[in-house]
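INFO batch 0412 | record 1 of 1 | parsing
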Amino acid sequence: MDVFDILDRLVAFPSVAGKPNGDIAGWIEAYLAKHGMQVMLLRGPEGDRSNLFATVGPADVPGYILSGHMDVVPANEPQWSSSPFAMRKEGERLYGRGTTDMKGFLAAVLAAVPTLAALRLAMPIHLAFSYDEEVGCRGVPHLIARLPELCAKPLGVIVGEPSGMHAVRGHKGKAAARVTIRGLTGHSSRPDLGLNAIHAMANALSAAVSEAERLTHGPFDPAFEPPYSSLQAGVVAGGQSVNIIPDTCTLDLEARAIPGVDPASLLASVRAEAEALAAEGFQAEWTPMSAYPAMSLPRDAPLAGLLHALTGEVPLAAVSYGTEAGLYQAAGLDAIICGPGDIGRAHKPDEYILTSELAVCQRLIEALGARCAT
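INFO prediction complete | emitting tokens
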């Protein structure tokens, strides 16, 4: 199978994050086993989802990980020109959910496997494919925890998120949470007998706005746009009718932090304001939704030098989106981003990748294999 056949097959799996992924993981497992690779499906605590780890070459010596995720975001938008889970070719464009984010990278890796398998690798190349990346990088921590038993400590991790095949050394960290305030309902004519959860949420929301403003004053990292950490309230929901005292209100918010700043710490003032409402008779719940750390690979790191050699370009300092690379780095592994496609095409109707981008990615992976060969 060539890279286009493989991508066509991968897109056909509606592997939406948060749902069972046995079909796509099983298909990849069978494909790799057919080419003689050592493959393991690592079941997550959910019971119906698995990470996949596979190795070409000797697993007991340091090598490199090619990291990607098998899940995609939903494709419910009515603007799709064709079925999102049936790949459509139009000139150089290959349309379908996940073509760019990030089944295109998976397809390029899998298409390179026959070449890698034919080489006598002195250093291994590992494939680490995760689940539920799109809902807060929930799957990969379980895979990372198993690495010491699966292989020697890798020299580096290449995360194939769409970057136009430009290597990238950094991204911000993220933490997202939901605040739920519960009060007491009643008729709006007697507000003295109820506890208005929407009014109470104003305290937490005000704290979020104040923190967002404070962050614009630094600290700064000029590699990023904007060059400071940020916080925003994304969703507020509550109430049934204008004449009913609302007894529940929720607030979803996120913080994005430059390297060196714990993203979860940026939400602390909001949480404190919410929990202080207990003194007024309200109940407050704090529910973490997702979190991953920032990633910052030094300019002179060997992995940055390797990608410079493979791509012919000096790695970029940073991108605005987040990836699993921060979690690999937090576990003590050098990580860098480099993958086909443009992040601007992801998470929208008629997502696509170019045939030329897949070809460039496959060549890079095969060139990495040549460097790892005896």
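INFO post-check: The radius of gyration is 23 Å.
INFO record closed
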